[in-house]
Amino acid sequence: MNFSDHQIGIYAQGMFTDTRPEITTNLATLEEQAAATLTPEALGYIVASAGSGSTARANRDAFDAWRIAPRMLRSAAERDHATTILGTALPAPLMIAPVGIQTLAHPDGELATVRAAAALGVPYIHSTQASHSFEQVAEAGGDAPRWYQLYWPTDESVLLSFLGRAQDTGFTTLVLTLDTTLLGWRPADLDRGYLPFLANLGIENYLSDPAFRAGLEQPVDANPIAAAMHWAQMFPNPGLNWSQLAFLRQHWDGPIVLKGICTVGDARSALEHGVDGIVVSNHGGRQIDGARASLDALPEIVDAVGDRLTVLFDSGVRTGADMAKALALGADAVLLGRPFLYGLALAGQAGVEHVLRCILAEFDLVTSLSGHTGASELGRESVIRA
Ligand SMILES: Cc1cc2nc3c(=O)[nH]c(=O)nc-3n(C[C@H](O)[C@H](O)[C@H](O)COP(=O)(O)O)c2cc1C
Ligand SMILES: CCCCC(=O)C(=O)O
């Protein structure tokens, strides 16, 4: 795939038509454009962060504190960014972060996102909170690489049912999210008394689950509120602890990744507990207001475990240059969060594709212009503290 062709295509569109592209190519300001299409509730849920927003801001500040140190005259005509992460082939070290309830952004929700993933070969990670089921996404997704993100419910029959359905429908790697055993303090939602999974949005991934349904006194359709409350009772799991990972190993036949690691100590524990990878992440600042920036945690975690664990990264990635910085600081691949959701909000599948193509094209240009022939050449010498 030649990512920079996307740039030429955009210029050519300007040459042959007098219409403006409907979605901006400025990934840094995409949020403003998407905001205009979302309801206040959806906007608050998607964009706002925990508490005062200090961690979300810190995520961005951390990117600004690193600058790319470009090198010249290095023969970067032929470039190859392809890589393989835990057995999954990627055209470049980019994946789509797990995001719940995507129908909040667009009626096609996860179906649009997985189709965009298939069109570009960029992996899609299916949230436990998805508004479409494993089965619907597997059918829509064709040959898109697909992983599954688990929120560990306290009801063991539902947990086992999720793991079984995910494996039966071809999700290859399990991502266990650690940082959301309780929902963080989110004033934008609290002020409106708004929580999507209590807002009767039909979160099909669990509403369709046979084990979940077996625990209901009335069918979902007869009493949707009771169904939502049933989920609200099994979702919080603050008792989750390291010793339970052995149980996942027994019931998941494939790689396991822990998402939400922010310290060297936890990265070492992940290694000791025999998982295959981690995602250095603070959940986009949505959980602990005041937590450190995800990018600030990355280099020391890579130094401690990077040679023995796959280290993925998210929280704050907005542009191709951000992607290059995180890879330079040692991430094996980055997860794109809110930006793809903005593309989804603006134009469904086409919008997600647009955002993925833009970030990949910009990444290709930034790395090439700074003297690299591929993502694998990015290293600490590629960046410098501002
Ligand atoms: C609206 C929304 C919903 C999310 N839902 C999930 C989820 O279901 N599971 C999960 O592990 N992370 C979820 N996340 C967190 C993302 O996977 C990712 O960690 C985060 O978006 C990265 O931060 P960024 O968007 O600022 O780059 C969600 C994020 C957003 C914005
Ligand atoms: C209950 C959490 C649902 C999705 C999520 O992870 C988020 O909103 O950040």
UniProtKB/TrEMBL annotation:
Keyword Flavoprotein: yes
Family: Belongs to the FMN-dependent alpha-hydroxy acid dehydrogenase family.
Every FMN hydroxy acid dehydrogenase domain range: 19-386
Keyword Flavoprotein: yes
Record: residues binding glyoxylate: Y45, Y151, R186, H283, R286
Residues annotated as the enzyme's active site: H283
UniProt-recorded name of the protein: Alpha-hydroxy-acid oxidizing enzyme
Spans traversing the lipid bilayer: none
Keywords from the named record: Flavoprotein, FMN, Oxidoreductase
Cofactor needs: FMN
A single GO molecular function term of this UniProt record: FMN binding
